[in-house]
């Protein structure tokens, strides 16, 4: 029983057990000070001492419906009382219902799904399936992208978190430059006047690598933790055209950008692109239970009508996770969350323009729906970042101060290098956005002091 234990004592015990007996991702294990979360409700969660935090990044951009939605708990309990697990070779009603629902919301021609336990496994299976289907072996991927932390997914991404494992990367991954218009690799003046060298660059790489060797190109539906880099107009359509020209599969990574995050069921919808595969996770259950999905075209699926599909996982199509996902998809629709994400995203865009006039440290703000980030600079002309790409601990001193201020003021959000992410739950209101932007504005005063003319 914990009701008679003073909150500070209870917090101390919880923290000690966490630090003594568990390991924390992407961190040195000494000196960390995690928030001790007791409960969550809507766009907020609370620690054991009653402090409230506004969750402005939806956890890791996955708690799309907000915290503590009772309908998901009820659906999960009902499924567990019926059947909690069967092997993936068995069929269940909830598996079929979820697969059918996904086919209804997916782009045309994508009607079959292989269920995984998360995003990295969806990417892993997308890479394997591309090689099985095409008989080719190379995968093209962007440098500024993160596709997951398993070896294959991490190798496909260009994120520097893979560098400590660099000698053991999966082979035949070829990286390409990003269409990073704010910091264009080809020094073009802007997306409206450039010659789309970012696209011709991809075609040259395909030709250099050998068109007969490239199985697939993997692209995020919309960029996430590498800085919410916005695709210039027509970019993904041109990439799709290259895939068609050279008989290459297009894999859309919608792990983060899927399920309403960008104001659409899937981010590729806004670009008018139909991929060959969609790898997704996160928002499919809003983080309530682990689940991922690899959705594939009818053409790819038909290949395995008479051939063995050499893919499988112990927890594929886990019925309890499927039940959570099915209920979450209904919640998106019943509570009009996808339209709200688009509307709130437009509101944030307007407010950020106003904040740019106040804070000289805001170099750029990139956002689609409720997937956005502020890029902080010391000088808007030179675009010197407040912290460089893959910054060392000493280079993060300013941004660490900013992050500490955000936490002190009651905000939880993702701060990385010179980025502050704005990706709240899709149920957020204007009033809650204003609460968050007020906190961010206060923290930006710290960065403003380090700007120079």
Notable characteristics:
alpha/beta; Aspartate Aminotransferase, domain 1; Aspartate Aminotransferase, domain 2; seven-stranded mixed beta sheet; five-stranded antiparallel beta sheet; 38% helix; globular
Short structural summary:
It contains 14 helices and 16 strands.
Description:
With 453 residues, the protein is α/β, with parallel strands linked by helices. The chain has two domains: 35-65 and 336-448, Aspartate Aminotransferase, domain 1, CATH 3.90.1150.10; 70-334, Type I PLP-dependent aspartate aminotransferase-like (Major domain) (Aspartate Aminotransferase, domain 2, 3-Layer(aba) Sandwich). 38% of the residues lie in helices and 17% in strands. The chain contains 14 helices and 16 strands. It has helices at 7-21, 58-61, 70-82, 93-105, 119-134, 151-156, 197-209, 235-246, 268-271, 298-303, 319-334, 337-358, 397-408, 430-448, and strands spanning 37-41, 44-47, 52-55, 110-116, 138-142, 173-176, 214-220, 249-253, 277-280, 292-297, 362-368, 371-379, 384-385, 411-412, 415-416, 419-422. It has a seven-stranded mixed β-sheet, sandwiched between helices. Strands 11, 12, 13, 15 and 16 form a five-stranded antiparallel β-sheet that branches. Strands 1-2-3-14 form a four-stranded mixed β-sheet. Helix 3 runs antiparallel to helix 11 (319-334) and helix 12 runs parallel beside helix 14. The longest helix has 22 residues, at 337-358.
